[in-house]
Amino acid sequence: MSYRPPESYEELIKLIHDRYDDMSKSYQKIALYLTQNPNDVAVLSVNAIGAKCGIHASSFVRYAQSLGYKGFKELQVVFQRRLSTAAPGFDARVKALEAELGGAREGDIGLLRDLVARDVASLQDLLANIDPAAIASAADLLEGADTVYLIGQLRSAPVVDLLRYVLTMLGKRTVLLDASGGLATHMAKVARTSDLLFLVSFRFYATEVVNVAEETAARGVPIIAITDSTLSPFAKLAQVLFAVPEHEYTFSRSLAAPMCLAQALSVALAARLQKDSDTPRIPVVTGP
Predict the structure, then answer these.
(1) Which residue, among 134, 202, 212, has the nearest Cα to 175 in the 3D structure?
(2) β-strands 173-176, 147-151 pairing
(3) 8 A C-beta contact, residue 141 and residue 153
(4) How many CA atoms does the CB half-sphere of 1 hold within 13 Å?
(5) What is the rounded distance in angstroms from the CA atom of residue 110 to the CA atom of residue 53?
(6) At residue 174, what are phi and psi to the nearest 5 degrees?
(7) Which of 51-60, 82-91, 129-138, 250-259 has the lowest mean pLDDT?
(8) Could you give the strand order of the β-sheet that contains 196-200, starting from the edge strand earlier in sequence?
(9) Given pLDDT bands bounded at 50, 70 and 90, which one contains residue 90?
(10) pTM of the model
(11) Where are the alpha helices (DSSP H) in 173-284?
(12) Mean pLDDT, all residues of the chain
């Protein structure tokens, strides 16, 4: 069956989202890369993109054909049109920052310099791509919630730990759905529609977090999600979704951008609670 291929980037992304759940695992991996790295897709060869993904270039060609294009190059044209008005991509930001920081890359200080450049680039990406309306909506939901339930496991855990501390200090009733003891799923079942579930989860999404999100959403409890893609399992469940693309690091994937976003949401909430949009403050335990 043939399809009219999307002519605009927005149409293409919508088509990818619409078909994502029915795709094979390899096609889903391709879809994730295309949506998270549009600048790279515009400038790299299909062989280079395949090498980054660990998927043979021929699969990219077949994927493009499944969307109605004659081949990958025809799909790539859509990304190239977008690039003419887009901000620099992650790799371009990293290279610019590396040049600005200067110095040799050898040795321990070189590792630090590389991590700093990548973290700064991820923060620049966050600022360039975040939706101001989403921040406002999330802060409004946080303000109106009777109780904020927090869940994030594995390497997402530090983000929700920070949120628990800050929200508690702001006087919000907060419950951490801790994985220890095996009670997180049962604790989440007492959340009401006047409450809020705030989750943080990245690939490979913790099964318990996905289950809690699905069960909670089915009962009408609003959800704020910080995740890595608009194709994540939480995209159709969350009232407010923050997609923070992840990039490969030397040793791990950084939490700099998610942490910064969590702090920004906390400060936006503080501004509402304190009726002070200019100088909101987060109280601290060690303060006077």
Answers:
(1) 212
(2) parallel
(3) no
(4) 2
(5) 26
(6) -130, 135
(7) 82-91
(8) 173-176, 147-151, 196-200, 223-227, 240-243
(9) low
(10) 0.80
(11) 184-188, 207-218, 256-273
(12) 88
